[in-house]
Amino acid sequence: MNLDDSSPLSSRRRFLRWSAIASGALGGAACESGPSDGPSSLGAPIRARGEPSPFEKSARRLSASKTPAQASSRTPLGDSYGILTPASLHFERHHSGVPNIDPAEHRLLIHGMVERPLIFTMGEIKSLPSTTRTLFLECSGNSGGEWSKAGGPNSQTSHGLASCSEWTGVPLRLLLDEAGVQADASWLLAEGADPCRMQRSLPLEKAMDDCLLAYAQNGEAIRPEQGYPLRLIAPGYEGNVCVKWLRRIKLATGPHMVRDETSKYSDLMADGKARLFTLVLDAKSVITFPSGGQSLSGAGSHEVTGLAWSGRGLIDRVEVSTDGGASWQDADLQEPRFPKAFTRFRMPWRWDGSEAVLLSRATDSSGYVQPAREELIAARGKNSIYHYNGIKPWRVAPDGSVTNVEI
After folding, report:
1. Is the pLDDT of residue 337 over 60?
2. Which of 108, 248, 319, 387 could disulfide-link 328, Cβ–Cβ 3.0 to 4.6 Å?
3. Kind plus residue range of the DSSP H or E element containing 374
4. What are φ and ψ of residue 82, in 5° steps?
5. DSSP label at residue 239
């Protein structure tokens, strides 16, 4: 088979050949020192719950807050592999702390514009037909600092209010059908059992489409920080809508216009008007290696990798630029891909040791293309701190250090 230099297979072969040469594998130099004999004594005993190796330092970044119960933590995306986020590293955003809820006492009320107001126990919910889906969650304030000139110094700071998990639960429509939604109902209000009684309005059409009442995450019961024992998951919608510790759903003819969809989680435009109910999250991507705070060992073969996601559906394409956007190359997308979930992208890169600026640009199945920061500002101004999805640049210096690009 004859392959030209531009073919993906040829590029992959060249990448592997460069890697082998760099490591000395072709010449056998890397084999001169074999593996160590290992420890001479018995290892640690079996534990009831597994823990990471002490050599792994990955951790969430906690926000500085004078009121710790109203704070957030960010996922270390730069340390991630694949697309799933461990539950222990999933980002958090709390408005009044994490309640301690006994699932045996927890109840879900469905009322308002329904034929039969109902109260469900957790046992009754778990007895219903369940489903499992891989989905991302993202706080609409994720990347809010990117509206400013400097932006986040690393991917955890700039994009860490996003994570991806496998969620298991019951389709919301099953419970709504059982309650009998009245014909004039078009919205619902979801309310949590935390002290602030977090509330968000949600279109009934979305609730009947793909919303999930989740009680498990990544194969285990949802952890308290993620809404134990029950959480609403609205795939592709901003994270604040995915109400944790779900206790009440009320059907109505319109949105309730509560605090967290009026004074917060709305976008003040340059002309003084505000965008309300910007629920669907647009396509977004970030290179996680090499990215801010990391470094390259030297000129030669490296793999550029990162994550892309969209609330509109599948990620169809991710392009990567290593010259500040002058040219773009398609990255490989890890399969299987799931709609409204993280997609891992990868691209082999031969770095020549000179300064480089790396960018990624995602396109989703709706045809939406991730915009540059300048395009967002031209369309929406700089008054908002929400719903930023602009292209993120990283600068690689000749010494291999990687930093945020001062735009």
Report:
1. yes
2. 319
3. helix 373-380
4. 60, -145
5. G
